[in-house]
Specification:
This protein is an alpha+beta fold. 25% of the residues lie in helices and 22% in strands. The longest helix is centred in the N-terminal third of the chain and has 16 residues, at 43-58.
């Protein structure tokens, strides 16, 4: 059922020209789940850290043995804490369950929804971010909040990062595709807070995807999204 923006026939423009009276403004939300485990260290970084540690060991201060013996004896007792780290690879990873937030724990995940949206030709459902056409909201961020709230039901587990959009793109209409109007799309960043499960509604389907997986759904926007999403 995966479909991409390539089927819409839009052409992209990154200009900041004045919006015409008939041109709409769309507020989109890049809703992300932050990493919940520390990412694995790159082998090059690990090798450098190991080299730095060994280099510092050559010039470390030498303390008297009696001082070290006292510090080693501190805190000893009969108690013992058994610690077993949680697995980095979850069942959702093994099953490639893109509806779950319990996957790709060391990566950021982004919410995409499948359904009708402004500009989709002939009312056909497409994959898109939570978004809404700006109407009479006080600010563009208020419009973005309304777009995300319509999908989640409430914003109690969300945090909007800043009041200004993180990116902008102008979508130009195509003469070859009926019902593809031109509009300007502004992206706001929001993050999942204090939960690992959200109820997603008002859409036909949804997925939580990494940055690399995100590009599969928007091949024509891949270059723009890759620059806008840093990590």
């Amino acid at each position: 059922m995966r479909r991409s923006i390539a089927s819409l026939g839009w052409s992209l423009s990154r200009g900041f020209s004045t919006t015409s009276p008939s041109e709409k403004i769309v507020a989109s939300v890049l809703f992300e789940r932050l990493p919940v485990v520390i990412p694995k260290i790159d082998p090059v970084v690990y090798a450098f850290q190991e080299f730095s540690f060994r280099w510092r060991q050559q010039y470390r201060r030498r303390y008297p043995d009696e001082l070290l013996d006292k510090s080693n004896a501190r805190g000893k007792g009969d108690y013992q804490i058994d610690y077993e780290p949680a697995p980095r690879i979850t069942e959702a990873d093994k099953q490639n369950d893109r509806k779950s937030l319990q996957r790709a724990l060391d990566r950021r995940l982004y919410l995409l929804i499948y359904g009708n949206t402004y500009g989709s030709p002939a009312g056909k459902p497409v994959w898109h971010f939570p978004e809404k056409v700006y109407e009479s909201e006080e600010t563009l961020r208020k419009c973005a909040e309304s777009a995300l709230q319509s999908v989640l039901g409430d914003l109690s587990h969300t945090y909007f990062v800043g009041n200004a959009p993180m990116g902008h793109i102008a979508m130009e209409s195509s003469a070859n595709v009926t019902g593809s109007p031109s509009f300007k799309q502004f992206f706001f960043k929001s993050q999942v807070i204090a939960t690992n499960k959200l109820k997603i509604g008002k859409c036909d389907d949804f997925v939580w995807v990494t940055k690399d997986e995100l590009m599969e759904y928007f091949p024509k926007k891949a270059e723009f999204l890759s620059k806008m999403i840093i990590s």
